[in-house]
Specification:
CATH topology: Aminopeptidase
CATH class: Alpha Beta
Oligomer: single chain
Largest sheet: 8 strands, mixed
Order of helices and strands: EEHHEEEHEHEE
Strand content: 25-35%
Helix content: 25-40%
CATH architecture: 3-Layer(aba) Sandwich
Distance between the termini: 27 Å
Strand order of the largest sheet: 1-2-3-4-5-6-8-7
Radius of gyration: 16 Å
Shape: globular
């Protein structure tokens, strides 16, 4: 567990997820999915049981090249990051992340702190060399954060997303090599 301060001085912590977080993580995810159109999953598609969430958490925790992190404030989840390492021998050095921050806590440095915690973990890891992520081209704040952390654009999936209003959105794939990459 690592304590941090938001840009306006609120104390929160970042720690690994465990199965006891399953119910709260589901509620948090439902809230986040309902609050934005910048994520792939819609609220209607997110129907996971607490038991299934616990299995998912435990499977990720058993993986040597994957990580789950949450930011909490007063024992409530305010940010979530998952990093899933590839499982085949030829690409086990690569992992993909997903990250989101509660709408009420965005632009306070929490996403940056989660990302920096992951990057530190990757730099101390003996297998992972490359972090990849995908981001909607319309998510300008996230893209700005990723560039500021050293990520580079690797590719673009044109019209990969079709929003409910019919608008198409490109998806940008970005990468960062860790200290060993």
């Amino acid at each position: 567990m690592i304590n941090h301060l938001t840009k306006n001085g609120i104390s929160y912590c970042i720690r690994q997820v465990d199965e006891n977080d399953a119910e709260q993580l589901i509620a948090y995810s439902k809230n986040v999915f309902a609050s934005t159109n910048q994520l792939l999953t819609t609220p209607e598609e997110y129907n996971i049981s607490v038991a299934d969430e616990k299995v998912w958490i435990n499977n990720i925790r058993k993986s040597k090249n994957s990580e789950l992190l949450i930011a909490t404030l007063d024992h409530q989840v305010i940010g979530f990051l998952f990093f899933i390492g590839q499982q085949k021998a030829k690409n086990a050095h690569v992992g993909e992340l997903g990250i989101n921050v509660h709408p009420g806590y965005q632009a306070m440095g929490i996403g940056r702190a989660l990302m920096e915690t992951l990057i530190k973990w990757v730099n101390n890891h003996n297998v992972i060399e490359k972090i990849v992520l995908e981001v909607f081209a319309t998510n300008h704040n996230a893209i700005k954060l990723y560039y500021s952390l050293g990520f580079k654009e690797e590719g673009r999936f044109v019209k990969a997303i079709k929003q409910k209003n019919g608008e198409y959105v490109d998806v940008i794939q970005m990468y960062l090599f860790g200290a060993k990459g």
